[in-house]
Amino acid sequence: IFEAFEAHPGLSGLVELMMEEAELTDGLSVTRMVDAVRLLVDRFDQVRLIRSPQMLAHSIYRLGMLTEGSRLELVEPREEEGEAS
Q1: Does residue 84 fall inside a structural domain?
Q2: Longest CA span, the chain
Q3: Does 83 map to a domain?
Q4: What confidence category does residue 82 fall into, taking pLDDT thresholds of 50, 70 and 90?
């Protein structure tokens, strides 16, 4: 993702990430994905994360990235099975 941004710095419009099969297994992978989402929000008019992993959705919410007027939208975040809350 980061290399694609460097190669195409002038992007805009809507971007959707289909995350159904994304597996974020630890805090570092979640942090790197949050950084990537921030870059997307900085470069695009609207960003939709579709079926994002629960850990990512929770981190984005906790960091205040879903405030009113935000260009970031979570669509049907996954609820991971078998994890304690």
Answers
A1: no
A2: 42
A3: no
A4: low
Q: What would the pLDDT profile of 50-72 be if each residue is shown by its tens digit?
A: 999 999 999 999 999 999 989 99
Q: From the centroid of its chain, how far is CA 14?
A: 13
Q: Is residue 11 part of a domain?
A: yes
pLDDT for the residue numbered 9: 62
Residue 57: its pLDDT value, please? 96
Tokens 């079926």 correspond to what residue? 51
Q: Does a structural domain hold residue 21?
A: yes
Long-range CB pairs of 37-40, under 8 A, 24+ apart, other chains included:
37/65, 37/72, 38/65, 39/1, 39/2, 39/5, 40/1, 40/15
Structural domain range at position 52: 2-75
User: What are 10's two structure tokens?
Assistant: 């002038």
